[in-house]
């Protein structure tokens, strides 16, 4: 992977924008011809206000239908552009399914994607044939069988740590499938909905929804607790039929180190990526 420069061009300032969105009516984050995407709408709104062409770098590209409670991006703008009240102005012209939470001048060496230390996702499942409450229909998936979250937690704990997650990632050229899975556990909320929390340094394409589907296979009793670790170690691809719907998935947050560690974290990302590709 080519290592982009962290240096901001002379006469420009780097901005950090924090935002939230309902992904239901979007074809994912990344711009695609003829389709409604979050990146397209954000960049169009920014260009309209600043009267300049912009290019954003996002912490994690979400797929079609995936939501974000807290996403992060950065962009470089000519330094003379006034950013006071930019969040308010953006929210005035964006549709209601995207909200800008804040706009600040980024500290030196900030990079939304390569400077992040981890990402945290939530997945919600209404199981056992329960009826999904109308207000929950956008961010939870339904499953007709009852799930044993005790079994799911046992299985998921067995794959926490740094591993090659080839089993759960769709292949993308030049991208490493070695990831550090920091947290993967399940609980029931006050409504009885099954809620999974999944945190890793980074995720492969479709990795989260593949992991959820595999965990559900254990929770419903289709496979034994040891099955998750077995297929991980054997690098056996899971069936596409296990991939759970996008609508139950929400990006909760992006974790960054203290500002004085931005440069070291950025460099470490590429060191690990290069090592994985050798």
Automatic annotation (TrEMBL):
Pfam families per the UniProt record, alphabetical: PseudoU_synth_1
Catalytic activities: uridine(38/39/40) in tRNA = pseudouridine(38/39/40) in tRNA
Coiled-coil residue windows: none
Listed EC numbers: 5.4.99.12
Family annotation (Gene3D superfamilies): Pseudouridine synthase I, catalytic domain, C-terminal subdomain, Pseudouridine synthase I, catalytic domain, N-terminal subdomain
InterPro entries listed in its UniProt record: PsdUridine_synth_cat_dom_sf, PsdUridine_synth_TruA, PsdUridine_synth_TruA_a/b_dom, PsdUridine_synth_TruA_C, TruA/RsuA/RluB/E/F_N
CDD domains found in the cross-reference section: PseudoU_synth_EcTruA (cd02570)
Residue span, Pseudouridine synthase I TruA alpha/beta domain: 20-114, 155-257
Binding site for substrate: 121
Signal peptide interval: none
Alphabetical UniProt keywords: Isomerase, tRNA processing
Residues of the active site: 63
GO molecular function, a single term: tRNA pseudouridine(38-40) synthase activity
Highest rank taxon of the organism: Bacteria
Record flagged with keyword Transcription: no
An example Gene Ontology biological process: tRNA pseudouridine synthesis
Family: Belongs to the tRNA pseudouridine synthase TruA family.
PANTHER family named among the record's database cross-references: PSEUDOURIDYLATE SYNTHASE, TRNA PSEUDOURIDINE SYNTHASE-LIKE 1
Function: Formation of pseudouridine at positions 38, 39 and 40 in the anticodon stem and loop of transfer RNAs.
NCBIfam families assigned: hisT_truA
Quaternary structure (record): Homodimer.
Name of the protein in its database record: tRNA pseudouridine synthase A
Record organism: Candidatus Nanopelagicus hibericus
Lineage: Bacteria, Bacillati, Actinomycetota, Actinomycetes, Candidatus Nanopelagicales
């Amino acid at each position: 992977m080519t290592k982009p420069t962290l240096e901001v061009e002379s006469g420009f300032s780097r901005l950090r924008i924090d935002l939230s969105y309902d992904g239901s009516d979007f074809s994912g984050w990344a711009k695609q011809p003829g389709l409604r995407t979050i990146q397209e709408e954000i960049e169009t709104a920014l260009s309209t206000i600043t009267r300049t062409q912009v290019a954003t770098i996002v912490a994690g590209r979400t797929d079609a239908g995936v939501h974000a409670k807290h996403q992060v991006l950065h962009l470089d703008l000519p330094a003379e552009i006034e950013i006071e009240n930019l969040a308010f102005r953006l929210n005035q012209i964006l549709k209601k399914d995207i909200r800008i939470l804040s706009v600040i001048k980024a500290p030196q060496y900030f990079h939304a994607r390569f400077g992040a230390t981890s990402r945290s996702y939530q997945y919600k499942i209404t199981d056992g044939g329960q009826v999904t409450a109308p207000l929950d229909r956008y961010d939870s998936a339904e499953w007709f069988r009852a799930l044993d979250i005790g079994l799911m937690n046992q299985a998921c704990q067995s794959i926490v740590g740094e591993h090659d997650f080839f089993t759960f990632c769709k292949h993308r050229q030049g991208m490493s499938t070695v990831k550090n899975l920091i947290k993967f556990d399940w609980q029931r909320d006050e409504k009885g909905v099954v809620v999974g929390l999944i945190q890793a340094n980074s995720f492969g394409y479709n990795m989260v929804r593949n992991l959820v589907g595999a965990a559900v296979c254990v929770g419903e009793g289709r496979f034994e607790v040891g099955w998750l670790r077995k297929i991980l170690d054997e690098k056996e691809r899971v069936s596409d039929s296990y991939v759970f719907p996008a609508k139950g998935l929400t990006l909760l947050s992006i974790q960054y180190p203290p500002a004085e560690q931005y440069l070291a974290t950025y460099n470490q990302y590429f060191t690990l990526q290069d090592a994985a590709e050798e």
